[in-house]
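Much of what follows relies on a compact textual record of a protein's fold. Think of the row as the fold of the chain written in a discrete alphabet. An example makes this concrete, so a full record is given next.


***
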Amino acid sequence: QVQLVESGGGLVQAGGSLRLSCAASGRTFSIYAMAWFRQAPGKEREFVAAVSSSGVTTYYADSVKGRFTISRDNAKNTVTLQMNSLKPEDTAVYYCSAPRTTGWGIDFIWRRTYDYWGQGTQVTVSS
């Protein structure tokens, strides 16, 4: 059973930074891509960033490109989202996610690709 546990959310002022972490267990972590999604109140869950199994290749939503960085540590089974220059519109619950299958490509920006989800961590950015 795949388990994903996020940590690191909180309240920060606009322009500040937060670092989210996700600890994965239940299968061989290093052969699967990983991703972060977020969901603001009253909105659909949206893609934020994804990283390939090796950590070499990434995708980002246009809204976070240049401000957020996704990375992974396959030795520690963790994936991290470093968020800088935060804006009030970044306020949301952030979810770590993992796909059922291995592979990589443009499909990994879509919610339908992911089958496993963490419980979410709240990020609130005040203006």
